[in-house]
């Protein structure tokens, strides 16, 4: 398929242009897939070396590769780097004037330009489209491909148009899509939207074994932060905050306490921003305090810690941001402060969104909340979120080092699985939990689905010593069936019921992390039984669960001033 001479040129360019002796991981296979004109889907964590997977093929193939990239800063970084390597790479975006634009276009038409970086907005412009039709394009790379999905953390509506535009240029153009974050749901979205069901997928583990994950309740957060950075004095780190104001405040706080810290957010002058970023890259400052505007495309290998002073909006975002630590393979610490207050704040940000967007954002946020509260190994949780099963605890996260209390369950597991099957795998974890605790008050849908008539209804209470608060009511239906409904006594403590529901939700979530249950990829929030779960029913055994962290007390106590 790939001729020997091409193979040789790949090796040669790898060394002579990029200065690398060997391919890393799956790079060689990916690059060959791209060269042979196949649609290729690359899902690898940040730092794995995705850029080379389209940059190197572009140097070998005839014509120009189009690289679609969401951020001008990102494009500029890459173009600068490639230019330094002696490759003709250019970008086409709104920052260019007319004559620069023409020069770029000439280079593309004449075929000297090997990589053309372009923002999706520019791609949709009519005259750009006309010009691209005239050019010889080798392939299209869609970088940060998760931007296509509303279920990703960085949705860009223009990304949705990419496929139509590509087809407009040339229906046969091969596509390589690349991303560092893609839950199974997002992967499906990307494939659908780019019409690349036939693509070859390269997915490497998302596990970043050298990163230590920790979540702490946000109490006396400033003191905790100072203590943490003191323990890491002289090391490079990033502290993420939610607002520009908070960024300024925390940067100031760190400076006052003798740390070399600089702020970074979109409200600063571009020059100041650039200066602060350079200072960080060149080791003139140890800590950047930033909003999430900072970091995309930043390649600093020795970042030793990433602190989320405020809770992030989604686990996708969290994983991207923490992924900037320890790129050199040496240990890094990822510390997050969690407060219910922050979650409330984040929810307020969503109030101007339309209903679908708001629901999506809320669902992503709730995954974050669950991650913070669950007592299960953080790494197992994160990897499970990205569709990877880890059979054992990692031993290198706070939940592994300082485990919460455990309890065993077997009947409980059977009960959950049976309830999910009985209700035809169409409901959420909350709904299943509410069936088990008979929580019709908070969840009247139970009645409309007649789930109160299921044998499992209310059966989940006894496991949490709440049974005595409920009374059984025998209801004669017909001769054969006697429905035993548990109804709350008149004086039932509603909090007790909610807390029991929470416990069942926790069990369900843990079963998802352990792989007995899984998410329905087409219906967000719906929980299904996996093959492992089905097998379990045939031969059940006792499973160890962890109690959740009690994070409620963080409410209103996030700030210590
Ligand atoms: P990603 O886009 O996956 O986050 P990058 O493409 O930015 O990762 O690559 C991360 C780092 O790895 C860069 O510093 C890059 O120069 C380096 N790199 C990539 N491929 C190789 C290789 N084959 N050998 C050595 N270093 C590599
Ligand atoms: Zn762990």
From TrEMBL:
Reaction equation(s) it catalyzes: Couples ATP hydrolysis with the unwinding of duplex DNA by translocating in the 3'-5' direction
Cofactor(s) the protein needs: Mg(2+); Zn(2+)
Ranges annotated as biased composition (Acidic residues): 550-561
Stretches assigned to the Helicase C-terminal domain: 221-369
Highest rank taxon of the organism: Bacteria
Helicase ATP-binding domain boundaries: 31-200
Transmembrane segments: none
EC number: 5.6.2.4
GO cellular component terms, semicolon-separated: bacterial nucleoid; cytoplasm; replisome
Extent of the signal sequence: none
Keywords associated with the record: ATP-binding, Coiled coil, DNA damage, DNA repair, DNA-binding, Helicase, Hydrolase, Isomerase, Metal-binding, Nucleotide-binding
GO molecular function: 3'-5' DNA helicase activity; ATP binding; DNA binding; four-way junction helicase activity; hydrolase activity; metal ion binding
GO biological process, one term: DNA recombination
EC primary class: isomerase
Family statement drawn from the similarity comment of this UniProt entry: Belongs to the helicase family. RecQ subfamily.
Protein name: ATP-dependent DNA helicase RecQ
Residues of the full protein shown: 1 to 561 of 773
